[in-house]
Amino acid sequence: MIGLCEAVLLVGAAAQCWARGSLDQQPLRPEKTHLSLTHDLIGFHKNLTQIESITGNEEAVGEWLVASLSSQGYSVEKQYVEKKPARFNVLAWPGKEREAKVLLSSHIDTVPPFYPYETDNKTIHGRGSVDAKGSVATQIIAVNKLLSAGKISPDDVALLYVVGEEVGGDGMRAANDLQLSPQTIIFGEPTEGKLAAGHKGNLGVLLTAKGKAAHSGYPWLGRSANEVLVKALAALMELGQNLPESEKYGVTTLNIGKIEGGVAANVVAQDASATVAVRVAEGSPSYIKDEITNAVHKAVQSFLEGDMKPEDVVDIDFPSSGYGPIDIDHDVPGFGIITVNYGTDIPWLNQTVEGQKRYLYGPGSILVAHSDHEMLTEGQLWEAVGGYQRIVLHALGKDPCEDC
Ligand SMILES: [Zn+2]
């Protein structure tokens, strides 16, 4: 809870401050009088985290964010990514200018399942507490603190919170239509309070085996899609040991995330499929696509009869074009540097300005994000408020703050 005088910047609140005997204070700067900024980090983070927002169901948390930022005096724009269910990105700016030099951004969707907000001795648990509502809350409080202290001007910054990061990045892809051209973008994801120098690339693969059903007593009358799939996946596991590596990002890894196939033990399986995620440490996705295609086609040769081709027994789909490793700016003094193995929305937002800087930073650890024990501490949140302030000041060419 923030006292009225501490919250400052709202005309009405300011008037009450004067009435309570603060007559020796300087008058508030007139250009900021429309703002009524909260500094209640823990409460703000709690409100965000309490609202379930698994990808596809971001409407409630988006509405809460719009209401909160509006009530603080921000101008807020909703960008609909989907009408039914209603899913929208939230763009907000505290000054007169929608177009700001520095854009802070993160995502408001989470992975399933939902775990409720719980707090115990300054440790906060709950789905999204780390990924990425910790980043959303600390970015907003950091900006509010800089504005309240007069360290930045309201026209210096804007905020962008997107839907759909956890599934394909449709929110950030849509954000390209907002026509923003900031000089610097600060992306919020859990980096343990360090600056990320880059993250691995990503390539998704969907294998669909095509079988022919038959009685299991007469398997030669059919073709088992399960067997086709098992052979193909075995080949991918072997390939996974030999994919490109780099000094910066380590080895390319391959995860068989989901397998489905068949209907019963006594039926030769007609259908089977698997989804695979490749985390790319080196090179282009097209090289890895070729390697995967060759390995799978070779693996299913024994199922081909007559003039059949490998495509007749297995489809290989790449649901998106994928991307190689992403290098990220990390030139702000005073931070530890890491590289991370997860994907982000960074590749989906086109670089619209020559020399545009991109940073990746946020509280909490990716090692607990997406798990049933997602958690961080209040101390980590406050540390990130300081970290974001330092990155924003650096991006604006201003002196680092001593108290953040
Ligand atoms: Zn995230």
UniProtKB/TrEMBL annotation:
Task: Outline the extent of the Peptidase M20 dimerisation domain.
Answer: 198-301
User: Would I find Signal among this entry's keywords?
Assistant: yes
Please list the cofactors this protein needs. Answer: Zn(2+)
Q: One Pfam annotation, family name? A: M20_dimer
Q: Which residues form the signal peptide?
A: 1-19
Question: Recorded GO terms, molecular function?
Answer: hydrolase activity; metal ion binding
Q: Does the keyword Protease apply?
A: no
* Record InterPro entries: ArgE/DapE_CS, Bact_exopeptidase_dim_dom, Peptidase_M20, Peptidase_M20_dimer, Peptidase_M20A
- Keywords per UniProt: Hydrolase, Metal-binding, Signal, Zinc
User: Would you identify the family this protein belongs to, as annotated?
Assistant: Belongs to the peptidase M20A family.
Q: Which PANTHER family match?
A: ACETYLORNITHINE DEACETYLASE, PEPTIDASE M20 DIMERISATION DOMAIN-CONTAINING PROTEIN
Q: State the name under which the record lists this protein.
A: Peptidase M20 dimerisation domain-containing protein
